[in-house]
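Q: Can I borrow your eye for a moment on a structure tokenisation matter? Would you mind producing a protein record, from residues through to fold? Write it directly below this note and I will take it from there.
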Amino acid sequence: MTATPTFDPTSDEQLADPYPLYAQMRAQCPVLHDAERDIWILTRHEDVARVVHDPETFSSESAVRITAGPESDEVKQVLAEGWALTPNLTESDGEEHTRLRVAVNRVFTPRRVAALEPFVRDTAAELIDRFAADGRADIIEGYAWPLPLIVMARILGMPPKDVPLLRQWSSNWLKLSVGTGEPAERAEWARDVVTMQHYVMGLLEDTDRAGEDSLVSSLAQYGLEHGLDDVELMRIVMNLIIAGHVTVTRAIGNGLVTLLEHPDQLAALRAGEASADAMVEEILRFESPVQGLFRTVTRETELGGRHLVPGDRVMVHWGSANRDGCVFDNPDEFALIGRPRRHQMAFGRGVHACLGASLARLQLRVAIPLLFDRLPGLRLGPAGSRTRERLVIARGFEELHLHWNVPPLREAAS
């Protein structure tokens, strides 16, 4: 008798390659109960699509939290110095979610995103200039996280000097939101979250500081005209900062490793046989930076032969859905040519589809090819030079050391 698969995405084995396990889960138990976390893992594309298109049965409240239990008194005391963390764009339903989403749609337009391409390209080039002569670098530290945060700071009207703070605050917001950690750790993370809340509220109250062309100023004006208060707008801005960079950071690292491990596909990209747009979509499908989010069952229902009751928690697993052989031919093959894009779910689906997907795609389309253009002989570092993040809901690198060729000084000068 075949043993029931054990879902443990933070284990060494599954960090290295979780996809054989996901294939086993799709075949044997597509709706698997993870007893340790008390969540149901949905691994089939069909089931994931059904859940995200039925928000009345599957609520997005606590969509980021692995557990929805109460906070410790210590954490509650710290959070009381700020404002409630929800409802926000990711963790809201119905009319509440629509109000927040419409606000972003009205001010974060496709035209605004397209106009950012020169800034994205210049910023990426400036970051590469800092380490190009070194012949090696941790690409996550020097490139993959600064780029999207600098871009987001520019959009929102925040000074570049605050970018490291935004990174620290948003990292701790995510850790707090996921629901892991001991009470003392969580209290420290909560302090950073409250500090970030006050920072954003200050920008909303003083839009001159952010600049009249900034997204913060546009949101503040929209709020005045349509009845959104500063707390709601603050949550929107924090959502944009956090979601607007972690996905890009992880996708850059995932994409570089995947391309370097598939030299035939890299050669097709470099030769122009495959487009940068196709590269972005296949990277997102093949190694989804957000592996999944959570939903809470609101009424009795059945899914994959399992009976679910109100209060049950399910994980919609984008990473597995994007490797489902019922939807994708040869799903475990990384292929830049001939892969239909329409079924890829890395940015979610339904009413909660990622609002920043177009900006993320723009940055990936620019950032990854530019590294290969600027760094000849770009290659993976030796064994032990990359470290995966240990997160249930995401797949990316904490460290990724790459090497490349540097011309001798005399040749470079000539």
Notes: The first strand starts at residue 31 and ends at 34. The chain is about 50% helix and 10% strand. Confidence is low (pLDDT under 50) at residues 410-414. The CA atoms of residues 95 and 101 lie 10 Å apart.
